[in-house]
Prior knowledge:
The protein has twelve helices and 13 strands. By secondary structure, it is an alpha/beta fold. The chain folds into two domains: 2-243, P-loop containing nucleotide triphosphate hydrolases (Rossmann fold); 249-309. The strands form three sheets. It has a six-stranded mixed beta sheet, with helices on both faces. α5 runs antiparallel to α6.
Amino acid sequence: MISVRHLCKEFRINKHHPGRLGALRSLVSRQYTLIRAVDDVSFDIAPGELVGYLGPNGAGKSTTLKILTGILVPTSGEVRVGDRVPWAQRKAHAARIGAVFGQRTTLWWDLPVIESFDLLQHIYRIPPARFRANLAGFRELLGLDPFLHTPVRALSLGQRMRADLAAALLHDPEVLFLDEPTIGLDVVARERIRQFIQQINRERGTTIILTTHDLSDVAKLCERVLMIDHGKLLFDGQLETLRRRFGGERELVVDFAEPYENVAVPGASVKEREGLRVTYTFRRDESTASDLIQRLSRDYRIADLTVQEPEIEATVRRIYEERLLEAQE
Length: 329
């Protein structure tokens, strides 16, 4: 569905010289700084995949998405989405994709939401029966009815994001690009949008690329992640693989059936103790949860226990701070 080979994108930034003489110098002879936003990135995404695209601010995520949607032309490299080169076949490409950018809306600011949808029907030439069926489904799934006749400028952020998602999918796109779709939303709105994205991917087979700073989105929606930093692709694989390789310490929470003075167990450290509950930490490359559980069960009476994985936020932060991925190369 999506094929990216050796993608590079460079920007020329005008170098500013301070003071009057500097301004005059800039008029006479302009100098530029070359910024490589995307640097030799390659990956493939199969039809129907839902992939998380992660990276800090300025890593190259949004630049990649703008190239894939046809907004930007790359400096070099090859990109195909379906059978199209996005920037070379913009009109045909736009008719087959959907895009939601969290900071911007594709709806008409002063029009009621329903009138924006009607305009999109004519722009995309959506058959009336299909338009009615899609709109009815989205009204139910996204709860659009309370603000369907409200001007876009009067919507809350959560309402606007739901309307933008519906607008991006009215024409049944093959691929959906989501750039920060839950930014600034409350817990209830985020969960509703996550459920909708998951359902669209599962029931319609829509290929989805999701960029987000809210890593709980990725943890709940994506099995595969791409990680980019300083324009370079650092990781491409399963989220669970990322956790296993770089997840650091896991936790084992044990509720003992009776009090014990010494609850030490080889291969783990006691992190916290409160009454009959003890929290152990252990490294996955040094001990397994099953080994620890066997040791504990042999020496103590246990009422309950739980294994907790490290938060995905902590794993990703550790990778970027310590550059662990580069060290593996």
